[in-house]
Amino acid sequence: MSKLIETRGLTKQYPGVVALDHVDFDLEPGEVHVLFGENGAGKSTLISMLAGANTPTKGSIRLDGETVSFDSVAQAQAKGIYTVFQEFSLIPTLTVAQNIFLGWELRRGPFLDHRAMRARSREMLEELGFDIDPSAIVARLSRAQQQMVEITKAFHGDLKVLILDEPTASLTDREVDHLFDFVTKLKARGVGIVYISHRIQEFARIAERVTVLRDGAVIGTVAMADTNDDALVEMMTGRSFDQIYPSITNDPGEILLEVAGLHAPGISNARFQVRRGEVLGVAGLVGSGKSRLFRAVMGLTPVQSGTVTFKGRDITGATTRHIIKGGMYYLSPDRKAEGLDLATTARDNLAVNIVSGMRNEGGSPFVRWRAVNGSIDQISDHVELHAGYRNKPVSQLSGGNQQKALFGKCFGQEADLLIFDEPTVGVDMGTRAALYLLIKQLAEAGKAIVVISSDLPEAMNIAHRLLVLAHGRISAELSGQDMTEDTVLKYFFDETGATL
Amino acid sequence: MTTDTMPFSFPGLIRKIFVRVGVLPFFLLGALVVFTLLSPKFLTGQNLVNVMRQSVYLVLVSLGQMLVLISGGFDLSVGTAIALTSVVSATVMVWLAGIFPDAIFLVILLGALAGFAAAACVGLLNGIGVAYFDVSPFIMTLGASSLAGGAALLLTGGVPVSGLPFAFADVFGFGRLWGVPVPVIVALLCIVAMWVFMSRTSLGTQVYAVGGNIKAAHLSAINTKRTLMMAYVGCALIASLTGLLLTARVESGEANLGGTITLESIAACVIAGVSLRGGIGRVENVVLGGFFIVLVQNGMNLAQISSYMQMVLLGALLILAVIFDQLRYRMIMGGS
């Protein structure tokens, strides 16, 4: 069988680092080929070269048996290779149709034919099974819908290869089903699909083959039929699946946080408690309100009614700053937008919290940098952010190290309740294990921990109790034996009181 | 890219200096060489001392501008804050001097306070708009600039306020303490205070944090609104102090003081490596930046370049500095 894409000895070298090391990879028509590996394993480097966004230092890429070299993404697209990157290439202020036809505008005479573009967009969206209005402004769409628009953009030319970089990271299960149906249709048309994902449970549903990368090299390519999840994880990390989640002693103490009858934007009638020494998991689909619930608790969005009691004090409607100073800390899921200052060093980022923590103690307005730097080193050691990374701008660190720096920030201020919102998003397995260990230490030291996660195995394995949210309501509170995947999933789609 | 792997190479060193402090060392070196070649009077002790004295005003305003730039905004109203201070303080001094001719230093003090208060109002207005109403700093401070400038003209009808107490000009305009001009002493005190504030106080750290990523700062328990307010008020007050010193120097309250200083102060900061995106900048470099601009103006004067041409060149210099700022930011973010 002729290969659609074939790379030979593909190598990418950056000063001091080999990002990709003699990679042989191939893609057949009509197959889904998964690239699997930790962050920094070389998946992104590999697809960036297939997509034309990057050029190899050594090695060759062949498309339909013919050696190609791309200088730009546009060249790759002209040859039928289309990539949906994690960072979308949509213009938020334009409509869906305008975005779909960006660079492919239809004209009537010298003028744009908006009507034709809207009609054609509607057809394209319908064909793909996406329920989106072509006249909608992209900024108003959900992230999942934006992703659909991004995918739709691929269908202008003669599509041969579709590269999907973590396409399901922000989709609900229903949308994932849609996407997979659509992938199946593409396969039938003979399109080859390169698929990057961390969600191992998806592979069996769509993939024919999996190539595992580690440290820029191919560890192996296996047929999905001949392997299983555990084997893949072991190939990826060099350690087994069980070792990732630590067992955390469950020793619930006094109630720290009590929420009663809370109504907030996107949240109705939430009621729960968090105790010292326990890990409360919060699960739900994207849009279920699991993040919004705690953003309301933190004072980031206004509380409409209900009460939030923390350490016996009513903090309903208090400012975020006062809530943090009171001992509750929230780790944002979006480390780039609201977690870290990317242009300054990890050290500077940590200093911000230590300095504002010191002020908290009512000390002098002057900063004792020697003490601050001592604390920074201590915290960095604790979160295993190695010395070499501390003085680098955060933008230059890998996702895993950025997340470690973000974790470090929560040690700068003395907190009793820590809310981790998607603590391991875009983080490799090794770092995940390290972060879980930190959560374990905190919980066992008597802190109360909340872990909000879209990664169900994570939420179930790390938590002692699990809140499940659906449509802005808490649809279940599970613990012990009841915390099974089937039960949780049932409550994900809890239809009570919902309009779906 | 490849220079990174050779730690001691000359281009590697230049790159390192550029990423760390920005374009200023290269500009400074270039200016010294060019003007020394153009005019024999340029590189003399006498001239450099002169430049230092002249640069006091711009250095001060640039320090305030830096505060706002690091917080993630900028202040286009520093020029008219100076004008307003000049007019208000002069008016109050002249009026009070008529009532209390014997308590002249009290008159000067009250006049100065009135000037500070007027400028503080401009700063507060900017701060409220930017911090509480999320107005873009550009349009907020542009509007405030027109407002303050208009107010200064209204108060005086465009006519300079003369008849200031002699002691005011004698001390703050031309006075010397231990042989050092008073404005220079004031500037030195301000520089030290600003340096301590930015690098040794928690409030200073918070200004950097807010400018670097305001959402992250908010989630780190920093009062971002108060920090922004403080930056704009602080900037206006430093501009006001400059306004007082300039008023003493020209011995009258003038509504056209500080005409070009807004652009110059932004240029001084950017050349000194203060990022226009906020979060990055150092006091000591800004002082050098202000000094550099005045040095260039002085050099151009000595080289007999016309004042119109000087405007053209300064604008070009600013644009060049902004382009280099962009390159530097890319290097910091990309690491390549």
UniProtKB/TrEMBL annotation, chain B:
Q: Does the keyword Aminoacyl-tRNA synthetase apply?
A: no
Name recorded for this polypeptide: Autoinducer 2 import system permease protein LsrD
The top of its lineage is: Bacteria, Pseudomonadati, Pseudomonadota, Alphaproteobacteria, Rhodobacterales
Q: What does this protein do?
A: Part of the ABC transporter complex LsrABCD involved in autoinducer 2 (AI-2) import. Probably responsible for the translocation of the substrate across the membrane.
Q: What molecular function terms (GO) are annotated for this protein?
A: transmembrane transporter activity
Which key words tag this protein in UniProt? Cell inner membrane, Cell membrane, Membrane, Plasmid, Transmembrane, Transmembrane helix, Transport
Topology relative to the membrane = Multi-pass membrane protein
Q: Which InterPro entries match?
A: ABC_transp_permease
Pfam families, A to Z = BPD_transp_2 (PF02653)
